[in-house]
Amino acid sequence: MTLTIAEEVLLLAYREDTGKPVIGSVELDAALAGAVVAELAVSRRVDFDDKKLVVTDDAPLGDEELDQALARISGESRRHKADWWVGRLRMGGLRKRLLTRLAVRGVLSEQTGKILGIFPTTRYPELDPSHERAVRDRVRNVLAGAQPDERTAALIAVVHAAKLDREAFPDAPKGRVKEIAQGEWAGEAVQKTIASVHAAVIAATTAATTAATIT
Question: How far is CA 129 from each of CA 69, 106, 132, 188, rounded to the nearest angstrom?
């Protein structure tokens, strides 16, 4: 089974036992949207032009979420910055759809209930731990010094931007995480992609947090 970067973020962001997220909703939803943008970028469907997201190939990837996002970006009449797209993609139930998809595929279980017998709640405990284990092993290997591939670097950039690394990999060397997240290890083209995704998630998270504070 092949997971998208966004699905890998979800596995790292949810506790295996309680099925609840370990970071806030604002950060998590921005990370998921950023992961979608990152996947399109490493798949050579979009690129970053002066911080703006540009479609370079509108051919579908065969994944419903990714293809919908690509079609949405391609259909926009104006170019927008990557953080603008992260802000838009984070809304509309992206997290719920991804969680449900993982549950249908047997990676997570979906358990509904009520708090105080009144307020509905849904938990997503892990059903098949092999997938998260593989993601963690891959990331730990890179954080320990191995040369990252572009996809793993994009995952680390998103995780770091959402501050999820502090929960998922608390013992990871901070300098190494930052180095990967900012693309300092890579050539110019790859560095631009990784650094742009990292910056976009941070900007979108800050904007959403500010908006929530004001309202």
Answer: 28, 10, 6, 36
